[in-house]
Amino acid sequence: MQKKQLEAAASFVSDRLKYEPTGHDAAHIDRVRQLARQIANQEGGSLFVIEMAAIVHDIIDEKLSSEWKLSPQQLEHQLLFWEVHTRDIRYIMDIITTMSFRHRHKQNRPITLEGAIVQDADRLDAIGATGIARVFTYAGAKGEPHYSKDTQQGSVLKHMEEKLLKLKDLMNTHAGTQLAEDRQDLMSLFIKTWKEECGLTDE
């Protein structure tokens, strides 16, 4: 039963987010799901709740336009349609409403192990080579510059330095922290090299 529920959710979300232009697309969802499974293999937790939360975690994200997202109420109805147990729906909704950068900035910690795992998986997809690709995708979709001398203006470089480079230290799990090491090193090297090429290094 749970396998069919996960398959139904994955198909629904994949169809809905297939062409989402900001890097919160179906490919991102699939990567987060796989990373969450990888972390759960070491950390434990309810694999069904972890996978379902990973699958639907972006479908109510405020960053998505109305063309792509659902309201929280619509998602709950959809989970009920897939016959997900009401207890699991509460767990899943709690997880995905405490995952945003806004909540991270406030250092809000997930209540459950499952929430910690899904949040770590989402963070991992924001750093490393994939994270670099995604931040440029998001900036292109939103019309943001690669970098700017105006420190108040949003840019790819500012987002990397002020948010993405902090994610490794915000990991909740040991497995997530280990997976973040190489991704963090790659992103740090990219930023250093990029700033040198663009003449942005301090004299």
From TrEMBL:
Protein name, entry field: HD/PDEase domain-containing protein
Superkingdom of the source species: Bacteria
PANTHER family, per database record: HD_PDEASE DOMAIN-CONTAINING PROTEIN, SUPERFAMILY HYDROLASE, PUTATIVE (AFU_ORTHOLOGUE AFUA_1G03035)-RELATED
Record SUPFAM superfamilies: HD-domain/PDEase-like (SSF109604)
HD/PDEase domain boundaries: 21-136
Family annotation (Pfam families): HD
InterPro entries with a match to the protein in the record: HD/PDEase_dom, HD_domain
